[in-house]
Amino acid sequence: MRHATGISDLGVEGLEKVLAQAIQWKQGPHPKHLVDKILGMVFFNPSLRTRASFEACMARGGGSSIVLEVGNGVWKLEDRAGAVMDGDRAEHIREAAPVLSRYVDVLAVRTFAGNTDDAEDHKDPVMNGFRNFATVPTLSMESAREHPCQGLADLMTARETFGTTKGLPVTLSWAPHIKPLPKAVPNSFLLTAAAAGCEVRVAHPKGFELQPEVQAQAEALAKEAGGSVAFTQDLDEAVKDSRVVYAKAWGPATGGPLGPEAVKAFPAWMTSPEIMAKAAADAIFMHCLPVRRNVEVADGVLDGPWSRVVDEAENRFHVQRALLQWLLEA
Amino acid sequence: MRHATGISDLGVEGLEKVLAQAIQWKQGPHPKHLVDKILGMVFFNPSLRTRASFEACMARGGGSSIVLEVGNGVWKLEDRAGAVMDGDRAEHIREAAPVLSRYVDVLAVRTFAGNTDDAEDHKDPVMNGFRNFATVPTLSMESAREHPCQGLADLMTARETFGTTKGLPVTLSWAPHIKPLPKAVPNSFLLTAAAAGCEVRVAHPKGFELQPEVQAQAEALAKEAGGSVAFTQDLDEAVKDSRVVYAKAWGPATGGPLGPEAVKAFPAWMTSPEIMAKAAADAIFMHCLPVRRNVEVADGVLDGPWSRVVDEAENRFHVQRALLQWLLEA
Amino acid sequence: MRHATGISDLGVEGLEKVLAQAIQWKQGPHPKHLVDKILGMVFFNPSLRTRASFEACMARGGGSSIVLEVGNGVWKLEDRAGAVMDGDRAEHIREAAPVLSRYVDVLAVRTFAGNTDDAEDHKDPVMNGFRNFATVPTLSMESAREHPCQGLADLMTARETFGTTKGLPVTLSWAPHIKPLPKAVPNSFLLTAAAAGCEVRVAHPKGFELQPEVQAQAEALAKEAGGSVAFTQDLDEAVKDSRVVYAKAWGPATGGPLGPEAVKAFPAWMTSPEIMAKAAADAIFMHCLPVRRNVEVADGVLDGPWSRVVDEAENRFHVQRALLQWLLEA
Question: Which of C64, C293, C307 should one mutate to test binding to chain A, selecting the residue with the greatest count of A CBs within 10 A?
Fold first, then answer.
């Protein structure tokens, strides 16, 4: 039985297979490949694109969806082994995951990082709880560690634009925000771009380093796929010749000198037309959305010729139905 | 590409077409006219009838629905151009509308009036934001200005009962309430009845005038359709010979002498059997629901022989599937 | 027109028919018996299993579901006749139930006990409001008085395991909890087991008696079905030779000496491997879920050889589609 809670479930081979299927299906009529299938979606956190695009995948494919929002019409869930459950969590994942598995064909989960303890987030307890106790394929709709569907949509967008991603120079640029956001999206862009063979450059102010384990995983994937990964605090240097500029806000590294109040302290990191002008002449701009205009990214970039953010969001739909196919065909 | 965010999108011709289709389809088995279609519904405000009836339209027609509740499992949305988005609105309609358009075939939006600034409400910024930035047909499920599906259901009910609405005397009667409610429903009853050729009488206490622009629009529609529009503060005079009494609470005109606390100051305006007895002998009673019993309308009216409120609510289903057809056939 | 808001709607004959259908359908492919049918679900309280299993029933059967959460995107509902509706309840069941009946084929309602007044709860005003004013079959997803779908799933699980439930010794064991929970689930296990001919033993500490009317109803059903019902405060005596141990927390009898703070005062009533060892050698353990581990039931029982809690939850799906069939075939 396959799961898809992180890039390591797919590997380079699975990634290539899913991207090829997604690009192929985008050209033709919607395949009815999900007839009689039910996707169960469990949200611990809000969503717009993820929920709508997965519901569209199921409906277009001939199947259906069940959406459950934990703590909002659904009990809060416990994930700790051996817990004496006398608090506000009324049900354990040890029951919820196998029970839901009896009703649906695939179980998708969204659970954001607590964002106060990188080591704890790295263990991804809720997502791994579902993965361990579910008896059907489990799919991440973003967890504390990764957002694999986003990474797939990002790389599909780059590949559509440039034909290939082998050796493609791409920059992941840290962006300012009013909150210290989770690292799942930057992790997944980095990991997926590395697995797709890109020349990946990650640029961020000092103190916003991604976790060492993720950096190491990206380097291993790049090596396997024939690409490279580099980290820098010099944004101008990073974007030079880049074909993709990918902006994303995330919080400081745990234990770093930066608190949440410092997150807006780097206004020069807001992606502007001036920054885009330093990239390759045919460079495109991407962002996972939602984006805070004129905080993370200037209006001029989002409304300008570089932006692929709407295509990128549409590609969530395409990669997700390819990923559902990959999960169910095993 | 067609939109349906107000009566002006339909005009007298579209109105007649949608009503005729709705009345015809009500007689037979459900047409499977929405196979493979997805309706995306975005709610900024609560709903019972609207949500359930639209979901039923899609299911009965062979299609499906995606329901998103903004601020309840979905990010809050920004609508202002050029905003520096450092507040609680995490996403701009400039992204949300085109992105959702990639997943669905029709985008329906509910967004109530702020009800503190008539001029601002009249601009209908959220509904018009979706309409401007969506790339699929946009449908109003009630906005700050109009509730076109309700107006269509109201006129369908009148036409079913009396065969024709040309020259039909109908009274829109202001009703007391504990809150200063939005004006979208009275606006839409007035505008749709005018466009259907009724002799429309609007009765309300002094200080509860509808916006001048809406009054002018209603007069123009009445002229085109061969009907008339009149405004009065004398309820007895208005209901005399009326075949339809339509009760609805709404808040005071901006800048008027009446604050919210005065809204209950007119108990004589609660529709009672005594008022219905002053109308035509075959008069029917309508209300869009939800209705506060014994505040807006007496039990004796709602449970009496005049009431068509449940048929009227059923007709939401019928006019909406006809409206979806009208949007998609263009 | 049939309803299913309590065991008395089914009777012994209906119960046997539904259980037989559920067990038969579990063996084969999903029957497409709900094509073009819509289930409307109205939740006044949270749910995980109930919502997911009913949505799965409709999807697997070829139909669809509409889910409405009262007070969460849907107006609060009034149930009292003659109410002057000037509070926070914006709509009356007298409108909501007949209106929803125009959109859907079956109306399912979840409304928990207020749990402060046993006599009021016993009248089940919300569930009976829907039942009285709906014009389509009404189904309980748990009300103040009963949870018939849970009782059916429980007895299906026992019958699957032991072949027959005639004369089967089963124990309903009160369990500790941090809150005084409603009595719908224990009521329904008692009533359904009695109607299925079991030898039912109900064990609880002094002060936690079930309502006299429910006890009397259970005794009448047991007499009709050839079983028996007994009540005891001696758990060891109850579980001796029992083939089923069914744990469930519920609050004290109204007017009893026990307040909510005393609910955890009986830790020896937590079902443990030691208690299971006193039951029959082939005894199974059941619980309706959600279960608070190490408060109501020890990890060793839930993770041990006795537990059927996941099968029992799966059987919610099977009995519910049989019950939908029973409602619609009449």
Answer: C293
